[in-house]
Amino acid sequence: MNVTNCTDPVAEFQYHLFPTVFIISFIIGLPGNLAALFYFTVRVSPRTPFSVFISNLAVADILILCTLPFRIHYHLNQNNWVFGNLACFLTGTLYFANIYMSIGFMTCICVDRYVATVHPHSYLRIRQPFCSLAVSVGLWSVSGVAILVFVLMGPLKNGDASSGQSCFENFTKTEWRDRLNLYSIFFLVLGSLVPSVVILVCYPLAARRISRFKTKTAQKAIKVISAILAITVLCFLPYHVIYLLHLLQRMDIIQNCSARNAIYNARRVTMALVTLNTCLDPVLYYMTTNHFSWKALKTTWLWGMAYQKVSRRMQSSCARPRAKTGMRTCRIQKTTGVLKGNPSLCTSLNHGWWWRMWTRRSGCLGGIYQSTRHCRRTAGG
């Protein structure tokens, strides 16, 4: 059947699917990504390539999540946009651009884990934060330039929409021919094909190498790569495959009416799936840390309030052999920075962020203490 005889496809289920998925993603994803951003930028020290990429991935997810309230209203309103052309352009651009930024940083994480496990000697030379920062700045710069060029080309023109004003969909054939085809091909190749190939190649190579080791570090690395592979296959791969078919349809290569309707409906589903990655990424963040770290994150503010009181007690007893902590007694060896006493308490003190702050500032340990790695710590009776 000729494409000119096809009626415009309508998917009534999208008015319920999109709001439901977007609300779930917003409620779960926003606090999860904000917590991850805080943890990997403030609490993780020293910075590593892994923490840099994770932080940037959280930023990309947060930008997507910030656009969801507008899109929730849009779909609840039967795909009728009421916030104006500028808001439509900004939210649509941020939403779709950061989908590709998300898979870009997930690819960087996968490559980082692959090099760290398969080529550990080479990884020692490139594990400085400068390299990961340069890669991150490069990715954001490419995205920024693409958006800038997109903006300079003028506003997008939508086709006739019988139900109201559409936003970032139903573009005219002229827009597709003059503008969107080139952008779609560019992002499909660099934002979909290349990352997918890298992830699908790195995973089996790293898994085969890591399977030889039984250490906790190796097992954590395989969990990270497995999570990235699962998110890619579940969220990103279906989206990009259907988008390729959608592009072929818009270029009139696919003209069958039934196929066009099926592609339209499938695109609704895959757009919902790709948004779900924003609430699945916190699972990836959790898998990269231990349970204690996330449990401690919940009580960061409580410990922050208690820090002044505890540190004053420890500093005031610096010259004495014992320091009362309010729970048990921890002996502080002045010359070596050693905590002795109750093992569980001393261990938590040694690894606490406020303990590191205190030892850096403390006059009694300042002459000896260089960093947590150079301070000998023991716990005993």
From TrEMBL:
One GO cellular component term, please give it.
Answer: membrane
Looking at the Swiss-Prot or TrEMBL record, what is one Pfam family this protein matches? Answer: 7tm_1
Keyword tags: Adaptive immunity, Disulfide bond, G-protein coupled receptor, Immunity, Membrane, Receptor, Transducer, Transmembrane, Transmembrane helix
Where, per UniProt, does this protein localize?
Membrane
G-protein coupled receptors family 1 profile domain location, by residue?
32-285
CDD domains (alphabetical): 7tmA_purinoceptor-like
Its predominant location is membrane
Q: Name one GO biological process term.
A: adaptive immune response
Q: Which GO terms describe its molecular function?
A: G protein-coupled receptor activity; oxysterol binding
Sections of the chain in a coiled coil = none
Membrane-protein topology? Multi-pass membrane protein
Specify the protein name: G-protein coupled receptors family 1 profile domain-containing protein
- The source organism is Oryzias latipes
